[in-house]
Amino acid sequence: MRIELNVNGKAQAIEIDDPDMPLLYALRDDLQLNNPRFGCGLAQCGACTVHVNGRAVRSCVTPVAAVEGAQITSAPIASTAGS
């Protein structure tokens, strides 16, 4: 199944077998993004938070098919270089 995603302003397409696969897996494994992070896997810690159409959602429990066509924004990782 082909899913169209708009991530950080860039249109991307991925092939998935399971539409219930967590968005987190698509972002990290299929699109090779370093952020969001995997944390608890239970939507409690917030490490996997992304914005979908401007609303914060936990990508570890959000099915990738549920956000097809939405604007997805992942927060950049803060740099601590030089501190």
Describe this structure in words.
- The protein is mainly beta and 83 residues long.
- Helices cover 10% and strands 28% of the residues.
- The protein has 1 helix and 5 strands.
- It has one helix spanning 23-30; strands at residues 2-7, 10-15, 49-52, 55-58, 71-73.
- It is globular and about 30 Å long.
- The chain starts with a strand and ends in a 10-residue tail after the last strand.
State the secondary-structure class: mainly beta
Estimate the mean pLDDT confidence: 91
Strand content: 25-35%
**Series of secondary-structure elements, N-terminal to C-terminal:** EEHEEE
Topology:
Blueprint: E1 2-7, E2 10-15, H1 23-30, E3 49-52, E4 55-58, E5 71-73
Parallel strand pairs: 1-5
Antiparallel strand pairs: 1-2, 3-4, 3-5
What structural keywords apply?
single chain, 83 residues, 28% strand, globular
Can you give me a brief rundown of this structure?
With 83 residues, the chain is mainly beta. Helix content is 10%, strand content 28%. The protein has one helix at residues 23-30; strands spanning 2-7, 10-15, 49-52, 55-58, 71-73.
